[in-house]
Amino acid sequence: MKKNCLVLVLMCCLTLMANAQGAKYCMTYSDFVAGNWKPVDDLTKGQTKQACQLKNSSNCYSFKTGVKEADQTLKKDAFAVMYGDHLYVNCRNLRNDGVQLDVTGYTQAVRYGKDKVCVMAYKTHDASLLLGLGLSVAGIVVDNSAVSLGLEAAGTTCFIGNEFLSRTVCYLVDKGADADGKYEVTRINDKFMESLLNKDASLLEKYMAISSKRNRQSSANVLPILMEKGLVASNAIN
């Protein structure tokens, strides 16, 4: 038993090291579309040997390198960070109907189609109700609600925190920033889904099958539909 536990801990440590070493960032949505990613290590210019760390605090993510200037670039200027195989988008400059999203840092995201980004963010006022749920650990995020939730879509299974999915909604980033550096994003709601699925009656029926509007429009319901539609990779948030 002890041996198995030690092996598991070692595997987790190796995974964390691999993720940390694989951190890369892009400065704008245009860079994201063009695939212009740069290693986070480039920002530190050799000033530290500490790997980039992912932290979760107050229901938003941040990245720490140990170099103040690099951390400020990631916090204020970067558009997105790839940490291992997972995508995180900076919500600092995202707006929906002119209102900033209720996330002050990075949030989890997935690629939508070929050149768009689907971000999962708490609905207005929800984030304030969840303060303190996140646990910051060097190099890894431990979410109190992180349980394996199987989302069946086209025969695939997606694993992510049930609480996170049920309390968040999806927003689509599909164009560059305005003159002030702000990105206007589209809420993926009933109107969006009805337009998207207007020629796919079976998927629209599946989406609308949930009577509660809040639950129907949550990431927990939207993402599996987008996966089945082929707009989001089935393994995007494994």
Task: Tell me what the structure shows.
34% of the residues lie in helices and 26% in strands. The chain has helices at 2-21, 29-34, 41-44, 68-77, 126-129, 162-167, 190-196, 201-208, 213-216, 219-229; strands at residues 24-26, 38-39, 53-57, 60-64, 80-83, 86-90, 94-96, 99-100, 106-112, 116-122, 134-137, 140-143, 168-173, 183-184, 186-187. The relative contact order is 0.13. By secondary structure, it is an alpha+beta fold. An eight-stranded antiparallel sheet has the order 2-1-5-6-9-10-13-15.
Give the SSE layout.
Elements: H1 2-21, E1 24-26, H2 29-34, E2 38-39, H3 41-44, E3 53-57, E4 60-64, H4 68-77, E5 80-83, E6 86-90, E7 94-96, E8 99-100, E9 106-112, E10 116-122, H5 126-129, E11 134-137, E12 140-143, H6 162-167, E13 168-173, E14 183-184, E15 186-187, H7 190-196, H8 201-208, H9 213-216, H10 219-229
Parallel strand pairs: 7-14
Antiparallel strand pairs: 1-2, 1-5, 3-4, 5-6, 6-9, 7-8, 9-10, 10-13, 11-12, 13-15
Instruction: Compute the CA-based radius of gyration.
Output: 18 Å
Query: Which structural category fits the helices and strands?
Result: alpha+beta
Number of strands: 15
User: What is the helix tally?
Assistant: 10
Q: Which descriptors would you attach to this protein?
A:
elongated, single chain, 238 residues, alpha+beta, eight-stranded antiparallel sheet, three-stranded mixed sheet, disordered N terminus
